[in-house]
Write a structure and sequence with these properties.
The complex is a heterodimer of chains A (about 325) and B (about 290).
Chain A: H1 2-9, H2 13-30, H3 32-35, H4 39-64, H5 71-85, H6 91-113, H7 118-144, E1 149-150, H8 157-179, H9 182-192, H10 194-199, H11 204-230, E2 232-233, H12 235-238, H13 241-254, H14 261-279, H15 284-297, H16 302-321
Antiparallel strand pairs in A: 1-2
Chain B: H1 2-26, H2 35-53, H3 57-86, H4 90-116, E1 129-132, E2 135-138, H5 139-161, H6 163-173, H7 175-180, H8 185-208, H9 218-232, H10 237-257, H11 263-277
Antiparallel strand pairs in B: 1-2
Helix pairs in contact in B: 1-5, 1-8, 1-9, 1-10, 2-3, 2-4, 2-8, 2-9, 3-4, 3-8, 5-6, 5-8, 6-8, 9-10, 9-11, 10-11
Classes of the chains: A mainly alpha (about 325), B mainly alpha (about 290).
Chain lengths: ~325, ~290
């Protein structure tokens, strides 16, 4: 408790004000299902889902520059935890279980790959969802004799929306806490120069694995929350690799240097992908490809980086004018 | 024991893809995740040449490989070189090239789906049996294996016994030192990238003669090639051939004895074992 008190005593007035504004904003957004239960609610569920996924992704991949494509794997694990347990175990317990299982698998993957260079990590995470999908399919067809699982609950779209919104609040608080903790400070140093970090006595491997587990656990919970929306869960729908790529695109286009950076990528891109999916369903692949190209060649630091350089130019030009 | 020969025959084609990727990553330092799309594109070209002009896929390589060489040279010069110049560290280059080639991957896949559709393609070339040690194998598989072996052998001779091949190996070892001994590193990198692309395209042409292909399968082959390259140790051509044969054997063994649906799981299982116990590759030497 004393540590908690210490954290609260360190919160500045400005931060308290920001927290208040955010709380008001979240409260207003939470009233959305009262006004619309159709298209706008449905796309808002997607937006909030990607906000949580991308922010959780950036918690780990932002400072470390490791590009994780394991999102689909953790998401699918979360979905399957709910799909398997929904008949026997209370739903809130399943959400906790989803976090534990996804976080645990993230830990194992981290142990195997995070000591190594970036490419191995990308390749392995890319394969992870495929690996788990194949094993789940094999187990299902050989031992249960069906190709999917039904998820029947009383949970409706608006409940999914509220749960995701609540999770978004948790993710932002967790991210904020990490940023001001020893772990967050260690990650900043690791991100700048891993050799320096090692010489400072930071256990780089453990720090990275810990952060990857937190990120994986959150993504697992998202999958668990989304499970009732599927109603029939099959391996290809739960472990859909495109989710991994979309998360990378949205997070990087937004910018990962600030906690709210991914937000700038998620909102336009969820709407764009939705429209493309409706009007040009066969061209989603090209849109994803062009988005990747844009990240590399036009917006290497995302929209966030663009805003910050414009801001910097503006302030430096006004400063130059001051002496004259 | 027919699975051993089947596995080796499959591994022969994998070897060419992996050697292509190891040249691109080991020499040009570009992790080209769009390499599988390159392969699929070659499959479609071979299909088109065979069905429209009755040019068989082995002969088709003479057209497809130089074409892939030129296209990959252009990709390197216009898309990858700016990244090489911009990135201050090798880590940055790695991240940038991964993202850029992901872009390339999705664009190429989208274009192929747009032009050829999402269906499965196959054609009949030498679809007759040949008996080896009392078992029957597809003649097209055997021919593809022999062609792959000839191409890989030629590459090996080129890299080890010619002046330019030695220069390319020097760049693979250390680009900075290579430029000190008057090797044109940017040109050697572009050449290696283009050559890697041509090899992958050649293996695509061979693969199409016995394999049912579709526009979506590029990523699977990139993954296989990556696992092989990492198993072998980056830049190691001989190791890549051996690792490819091992992967072919493992996949065929799993498909024969366990379940055909678990072949990719086997690939990754092998990959995890290598990462855990020999991260520098089975045949690689440790860096320190």
């Amino acid at each position: 408790m004393s540590r908690l008190n210490k954290i609260f005593s360190q919160i500045s007035k400005q931060e308290k004000r920001i927290a208040l504004y955010c709380a008001i904003a979240f409260a207003i957004i939470a009233t959305l299902p009262l006004f619309d239960q159709g298209f706008y609610l449905s796309i808002s569920v997607n937006i909030v889902m990607y906000i949580v996924l991308c922010t959780a992704w950036s918690l780990f991949s932002g400072p470390t520059h490791y590009i994780s494509l394991a999102t689909a794997a953790f998401y699918g694990i979360g979905t399957y935890v709910v799909a398997i347990g929904i008949k026997d175990i209370p739903y809130p317990v399943l959400l906790v279980m989803a976090a534990i299982v996804s976080g645990g698998i993230a830990g194992i993957v981290g142990l195997a790959t995070l000591r190594l260079s970036g490419v191995y990590f990308v390749v392995f995470t890319l394969g992870l969802s495929e690996l788990i999908r194949q094993i789940v399919t094999w187990v299902q067809t050989n031992f249960s004799g069906s190709s999917g699982l039904y998820v029947f609950t009383d949970i409706r779209e608006m409940h999914v929306f509220w749960q995701l919104l609540g999770l978004a609040v948790i993710v932002y608080i967790v991210g904020w806490l990490i940023n001001r903790s020893r772990l967050g400070f260690a990650m900043q140093i690791i991100g700048n120069d891993e050799t320096v970090a090692k010489h400072l006595g930071i256990n780089t491997a453990i720090s990275k694995i810990l952060l990857f587990m937190i990120s994986g656990a959150i993504i697992g919970v998202v999958g668990a929350i989304m499970a009732p929306r599927f109603s029939y869960v099959t391996p290809p729908s739960a472990f859909n690799p495109i989710i991994s790529f979309q998360v990378v695109i949205m997070a990087l286009l937004g910018g990962t240097k600030r906690l709210w950076g991914p937000l700038l990528g998620v909102i336009p891109f969820t709407i764009l992908f939705d429209q493309v999916g409706v009007y040009f369903p066969d061209q989603t692949s090209i849109v994803i490809g062009v988005a990747f190209m844009a990240i590399v060649y036009l917006l290497p630091n995302g929209v966030l980086g663009l805003i910050e350089t414009i801001k910097q130019k503006f302030t430096s030009s006004t400063k130059k004018e001051d002496p004259t | 024991m027919s699975f051993i020969i089947n596995g080796l025959l499959l591994g022969g084609t994998y070897a060419l893809i992996a050697v292509g990727l190891t040249l691109q990553y080991g020499v040009a330092r570009i992790m080209n995740l769009a390499n599988g799309e390159n392969l699929v594109f070659a499959c479609f070209m071979a299909f088109w040449l065979y069905t429209a002009f009755a040019i068989n896929p082995i002969l088709g390589i003479v057209i497809i490989a130089p074409m892939a060489f030129v296209i990959n040279w252009l990709i390197y010069s216009y898309a990858m070189r700016p990244l090489v110049n911009r990135s201050k560290t090798s880590g940055q280059l790695e991240v940038n090239s991964i993202l850029a080639t992901f872009g390339l991957l999705f664009i190429l896949k989208g274009l192929m789906k747009f032009s050829f559709g999402g269906g499965y393609f196959t054609y009949n070339y030498l679809a007759e049996g040949i008996s080896i040690f009392g078992h029957n194998y597809g003649l097209n598989r055997v021919v593809a294996f022999i062609a792959a072996a000839v191409i890989a052998g030629t590459l090996y001779l080129f890299l080890n016994y010619t002046r330019y091949g030695t220069a390319i190996r020097a760049v693979a070892v250390n680009p900075t030192s290579a430029s000190l001994v008057a090797i044109n590193v940017p040109r050697a990198s572009a050449f290696a990238f283009a050559l890697g692309g041509a090899l992958t395209a050649a293996s695509g042409a061979l693969l199409s003669s016995f394999y049912t292909f579709h526009a979506d399968m590029g990523m699977d082959f990139t993954m296989k090639a990556l696992v092989i390259v990492i198993m072998a140790g980056v830049g190691d051509v001989r190791g890549a051939v051996l690792a490819a044969l091992m992967l072919g054997l493992t996949e065929t063994a799993i498909a024969t004895f366990v379940d055909p649906g678990l072949t990719a799981a086997g690939t990754y299982g092998l990959f995890i074992l290598v990462l855990l116990f020999r991260p520098q590759g089975i045949f690689g030497r440790s860096n320190s």
